[in-house]
Amino acid sequence: MATESLGDFFRCLTRGMAAEVLRDHSDRQLVERALGGQDEAAFQAITQRHGSMVYRVCWRVLHHAQDAEDAFQATFLVLAQKLRSVRNHASLASWLHGVAHRVALKAKAQAAARRRHERRASLPDTLPTHEATGIDPHSALDFELRRLPDKWRLPLILCYLEGRTQDESARQLGWSKRTLRRRLDEAREVVGIRLKGRGVVWSAALSAVLISDCMASAAPAPKLVASTVDAAASVAAGKAIVSATSAQVAALTEGVMASMYLTKQVIAAAVLLFVGLVAGAGGLSRTASTDQAEPAQRSDPEKKKAVRAEDEARRAKDELEAARADLQKVKKSVGVAMTRFLTARERYETAKLLGRPAAIADQKGVLVLADVGKSSVRVNVKKESRDPDHELLGFGYFSHLLWIDDETFPVSKGVTISQDNVEARLADLKKGAHVTLGFDPDGKTVAKITADGGRVEGPIRYVSANAARNTITVTVGKKAERKVYHLVKETEVKAAGKAARLQDLEKGATLLLTLSVEDANTVIRIEAVPLGEEKGE
């Protein structure tokens, strides 16, 4: 006998140590472990985690130690029997709370009959009449918790009835802490409204009842937990309930399971009845429709006509949208063609009327490609057109056009090329250089190319120059930022349109600076602008 007790002691000790290792496992993991091989350690971990909450639910209903212990044990025996039917393993606490309340009410009914101190209590699915008066807010609270959906019931059970922190509860449920707080607030509000309907004062109920539950010292004894785990493990392994526990607990467990089965049957019968009623109503409607077949048939042509009209309107709308899109494309194409026509006509009229080299204006732009093989240059040029004649076509938008486009110009064999004030060849020209193209008398072939790095954006004011270091200091832009540029041997200096020297420049004079293609910090041309003259291109 002593050997058996010692063996039980070591078995419980080993199981408790294993359950401690599983303490950080989630409810889902513990249930899956228990289902996998009747793991006693998993049952113990579940019982230790939710045992206090289950015991307090039973105590609040029964207020009797032995009856509460019987209900506690019966709750976990029901779990052992119904473990595979728990739909959501993550909401195990919610499931246990509902079963514990049902078991406790069943035990209270049995105790009432046995002790004959009062009439039989109401069935487990109904709240006893005297509790609805607000005399026992604890039972009213448990009853209302059973009616809540899991999204509200779980956070209340975990945070208040099991005393977990919000971080632990959020982690257990897989929610964010923000979501947990929001649903706690929602749950408290819903429970408060329902308790008020039962005559329970809300401020006294939630703050006093729930917090007192959290802090209550009522908890299952270690011996009760151990015997419950032994019985649950035996039942899960296939052992009969009667042989696993006392007759009273077995009767309570089987009674609750029978009532749960009956509840499912009632629900199934209600569903079948509803389906039958719907089917009967469908038959009646078919019979009625037979009697009214002729009016329905008479209305069918009108319905079909309306449907056809809707379809036609939808197709017409789609065609309208497609035509509008095509019109936009045509306008764009016509616009491009119109700009080309205006450019060609402008060049033709200019050459025709003037007929002399001076009439062929220089073309300025940015070099895109210098093609030695084809003796041509492709330049990105700015184009502008003002001509009201094309308004006859209905495109008034193009009365003033300004755009940038690439254009290729043939280069004559004797072309003169200068880059950074130095004689150069066509192959020497740098892509991105600012070029000025001069044309032959025919206005088609490029006879002169001048390339540089472009002008500095003004306004520019002269400050000083250092001939020894070949630098010039100026202020640039509206903010008058001070900047130093390098000069080269080929740097040209002009004042009032004539050649000049650096020392001829007056302090504060307005300058036009042209940069080098090779170095954007080097100036190759300096022009002093006389007072009153505007910068030109």
Structure, explained:
With 537 residues, the protein is an alpha+beta fold. The protein has 3 domains: 2-266, no CATH class; 309-452, no CATH class; 460-529, Beta Barrel (OB fold (Dihydrolipoamide Acetyltransferase, E2P)), CATH 2.40.50. The chain has 14 helices and 12 strands. Strands 7, 8, 9, 10, 11 and 12 form a 6-stranded mixed beta sheet that branches. Strands 1-2-3-6-5 form a 5-stranded mixed beta barrel. The longest helix has 62 residues, at 293-354.
Biggest beta-sheet profile: 6 strands, mixed
End-to-end separation in angstroms reads 116 Å
Uncertain regions: pLDDT < 50 for 5+ in a row?
A: 129-135, 389-400
What's the pLDDT, averaged over the residues? 76
Query: Which value, in Å, is the CA radius of gyration?
Result: 48 Å
The DSSP helix count reads 14
Shape: elongated
Structural class: alpha+beta
Number of domains: 3
Give, in order, the helices and strands: HHHHHHHHHHHHHHEEEEEEEEEEEE
Name the beta content range.
15-25%
TL;DR?
This protein is α+β, with helices and mostly antiparallel strands and 537 residues long.
Write the topology of this structure:
Elements: H1 2-21, H2 27-37, H3 40-62, H4 65-82, H5 92-115, H6 137-147, H7 150-161, H8 166-173, H9 177-197, H10 202-215, H11 222-236, H12 241-244, H13 247-291, H14 293-354, E1 363-371, E2 376-386, E3 400-419, E4 422-423, E5 434-439, E6 446-452, E7 460-466, E8 471-476, E9 481-495, E10 498-499, E11 510-515, E12 522-529
